[in-house]
Structure prediction request, 848 residues.
Amino acid sequence: MAKGFQSLPGFRDFRPEDCAVRNYLFANFREVARRYGFVEYETPILEPTELYEKKAGGELNSQLFCFTDKGGREVTLRPEVTASLGRLVGAVQRNYPKPLRWFEIGQCFRYEKPQKGRTREFYQFNVDLLGESTAGADAELIALSIDLMRELGFVPGDFVIRLSDRAYWTDFGSVKGLSDEQTADLLGIVDKLEREKPEVTEKKLQALGLSTEEVKGAIEKPSSLGENLDSVLANLEARGMSDFIEIDLSIVRGLAYYTGVVFEVFDAKKSLRAVAGGGRYDTLISALSDGGVDLPAAGFAIGDVVIRHLIEETPHAAKKMQSVLQEEAGCDIYLVLADDNQQANALALSSKLRSAGLATTFSLTPAKVGKQFKQAEQAGASIALVVGSEYPELSAKILATRAEETLSDDQDIVETLLKLLPNS
Amino acid sequence: MAKGFQSLPGFRDFRPEDCAVRNYLFANFREVARRYGFVEYETPILEPTELYEKKAGGELNSQLFCFTDKGGREVTLRPEVTASLGRLVGAVQRNYPKPLRWFEIGQCFRYEKPQKGRTREFYQFNVDLLGESTAGADAELIALSIDLMRELGFVPGDFVIRLSDRAYWTDFGSVKGLSDEQTADLLGIVDKLEREKPEVTEKKLQALGLSTEEVKGAIEKPSSLGENLDSVLANLEARGMSDFIEIDLSIVRGLAYYTGVVFEVFDAKKSLRAVAGGGRYDTLISALSDGGVDLPAAGFAIGDVVIRHLIEETPHAAKKMQSVLQEEAGCDIYLVLADDNQQANALALSSKLRSAGLATTFSLTPAKVGKQFKQAEQAGASIALVVGSEYPELSAKILATRAEETLSDDQDIVETLLKLLPNS
Prediction:
């Protein structure tokens, strides 16, 4: 253990091998978003605390990473991005044709006790579709989440979309004669159904004039899913995605601002927390812009911590990731200087290769040829290119096969090397 | 102006068009680093404040974005990355062959009065070479900075590397009989030479037994640059990079931790602040790890704000950026549904195209064909693909040329569309 400073509890260092995993996730997020016609935006990591007080928060508020800045402002390291998105969209939406298909990849923060899988910072991929209130938009987002999982190497049987609609419970409450407030209470009870002790649930439901049996019956044997959910299901079926969908009306999402279809992505065993989740929030933009802008909206978010864990636990997804990481690791060319008199020519050659896009490295200090070859191996080089006294004649050793070729530092050298490189 | 919340002063929203510029910069940072065999890492955005108190800071300390967290910890939104890098490297360096070629792209924070070009947050590209004390390492970093500028579209005459060596002033101080402390004072005076009033400079120098004439003479007519600078110059000349270099011994960098060769990248007119800067800091890693790890090191950093400004002011660099952004903007295919009965087939087709990597979008709500064509234009689509009552026969309209082709939704459809797409 090295002496010296420590990082803060719950904050991660990404060593190169961790950063490569992070970047693999980000590249997949961006690629799938691009295929769906979404464009990237980014909002500040630090926001006025009032932004999160306004947006009804449930559990979130107690975990806010908030403080007072030097100027006496109450500020918060963002716990999520939707509030900032609402602020931004409220201010600039008139410049863009609707619907907005926007995504963001950024760090979020929660002040909670650090524990396995619960860091104080995490990256989140946020995908939002604004200005569209139809079931088609809900289906589009769910399809995007499914394609993201497939792109990450998951197959049917690895994960499931638990699909629900808050409107189902609003209708249920209305049939049972509940007030709006009571229906909100009911949603809170349904949200905690899997985690709460049965006797506590029963007692809370009794206060609303309901029984556990009644509510569980409504979840397990719904008489009708409603037009919206039926439409989402038909849409996803047309895309060939039905296998991934499981209607689960116990999913209502914790946050108060959801208004319609909601969904969560789970590993098939449901052994982890939700991998991703989201839904429709038609009134939030209006609330965040003080009624200035009224845009229906839906979105979902996926964090980097749980999905990384699930990839590493799923052999075929892990294998896909490893093969991409391996392909990206290591440089193309390691220049071995076998004759110190050729140093200037070797430097000129390095510039030529790099300008042509070849990842090229070399020893920055004089070293024996054997040591340079060892360094070439450590750098994961594909080719060790030896610059010696016969320059401009060069010797290229393909490190994987030990095959050797003689070539010349002429105008075709880049082309010649490209042919020798694997994956080209 | 929309009602509602505002972001904090000095914190930027990146709308999609701004985020595209940011991502263009990041892509160039990553590409040039890759060509030089550097790997990416990332450290926390929030660190213990003591990390920055230890690292001698000059101007930095008064601008620290520091606060007390809920747990009573003194914490700081990082003003720069080198201190975190030192901490991380001190802890893990033994796992990696030397030298470490590491880079990082991340957000940094300074609590200062927001003004044009001085935001409270900015992104920084940090490139560091650790475990190598030779001039070859200094030259490698300078070459990387030059290649980055060229990759961004700058040509000779657009920018200049102002190259210097702190050792020159240590030697100068030693010849003049200055103590270590007096030499440090001298470096501070040289650093401010361009900005300070001449009479203040003269007075400060007098206190060291020196004159302005003497110091300016040492800058303008150095008797010898020293072995190190000569070696860096020869190295860069071999790479064909001499045109970009200007020896300028008045450059010493503000921060106390630099120990040798230092450099700054400036626009040729020197009308902006430095675009990038860095140098050798051989004792910092040892200081940050309480002497646990002693690694010579050098590095440089470039922020996103000044370089973006310089690109936009330099027509050929701006043009290069615009052409890349334009190529990336817009989707490939916009599906136009001309017959509502074909909706399921259109959805299935969208899945097929997206799975093949084509950026595909469509109206999520029923709309007239004319409106859908308008949306296709707004989405910057290359091809509007019409799904009508003749399905599986489709009509493809290339929007740039208005040319039309008839094709079929069969197994070759992706291939057929790829041939019709520009840039393919």
In short: The domain at 331-420 of chain B is CATH 3.40.50.800 (Rossmann fold).
